[in-house]
Amino acid sequence: MAEQHFLDITHLAKRFDTEHGELTVFDDVSFGLDKGEFVCIIGHSGCGKSTILNVLAGLDSPSGGEVYMAGKEVRGPSLERGVVFQNYSLLPWRSALSNVEFGVRARFPGWSKSRVREHSLQYLHMVGLKDGAEHRKPSALSGGMRQRVSIARAFATQPQLLLLDEPFGALDALTRGTIQDELLKICAETHQTVFMITHDVDEAILLADRILLMTNGPHARVAESVKVSIERPRDRTTIVHDAGYYPIRTHLVDFLVSRSRELSDRDDAVRDAGHTREVQAEAMAPVEVDPAADARAEAAGFARPHAPDPHAPPPLKAVNGN
Ligand SMILES: Nc1ncnc2c1ncn2[C@@H]1O[C@H](COP(=O)(O)OP(=O)(O)OP(=O)(O)O)[C@@H](O)[C@H]1O
């Protein structure tokens, strides 16, 4: 297969045998990622985002199709692909620092103890864990701090590809915002290639170079690749004032409100008629959003009133050093 991108996913399919028969979660997912790109994927619950991420991680195998990274087929897990899940997955008997060191040692077995320590501390500091917090066990850290340790560990191992599965989904709004800022900073410094699942359109616009939009499952697919052409560095508190922000947001919300279902229904009709949908191998040109995008989403109550208000008071919960 000719490599077009750093990561190439072609005609990926996943079917599960369930008690109700075979479930085709997706049967033709194709897209690519370039080196250093930050790509978010959005779609309704159950369309198969985590399944795709697990296949990219090598934790699950596809029922069809191929994944190539740097020209090599992905089969099974590898330290070249780091994963951060929503539930932290830290070793509970080790301190924050020791959790990071554990990952770094596995990745760089030839490194001296002091080099491993220095490197691990550097990444813990990057995510704001210092002043003794790095020596605490996960049980003595807040949810936000634990997720920071997971992120530090993933970045510290310098994988070629970082896979983030809703890493901030369980965090309160203020903690989430702070860690998003830290993630932006680390990505600017490391040029890490990232594939991230999120349900939060504002988070996707803040972080991503490109946002992939999935139709509803079953038989889901990546239907659009939306370019986020807002300049970097981006600032969470001012990004909403960028002229490109609301058109992109409206485009994404409109997809989630109506196009994802319309496209799924159309795909179903094509399949029911016994035809094969014409494949768009993700030569899929990234969509540049029209500034005068349809306002249907706003009518559905999703648009501006729900955008992050940088002047809103922080949620009460968010104190514990996050
Ligand atoms: N091991 C399994 N056996 C049977 N069905 C499965 C299995 N794993 C996932 N599924 C089904 O595959 C579909 C896609 O699941 P997946 O978790 O990938 O969706 P998702 O888009 O990540 O959802 P969410 O946004 O809710 O996390 C769902 O219908 C789920 O029930």
Kindly describe this structure.
With 322 residues, the chain is of the alpha/beta class. The protein has helices at residues 49-57, 96-107, 113-126, 143-156, 173-190, 201-207, 245-272, 296-299, and strands spanning 7-18, 21-33, 38-42, 64-69, 72-73, 81-84, 161-165, 194-197, 210-214, 222-227. The strands form two sheets. A six-stranded mixed β-sheet has the order 6-7-8-3-9-10, with helices on both faces. A four-stranded antiparallel β-sheet has the order 2-1-4-5, covered by helices on one side. α2 packs across α3 and α2 (96-107) runs parallel beside α4. The termini are far apart. Bound molecules: adenosine-5'-triphosphate (ATP). This is Nitrate/sulfonate/bicarbonate ABC transporter ATP-binding protein. It is a peripheral membrane protein. Belongs to the ABC transporter superfamily. It is found in: Cell membrane.
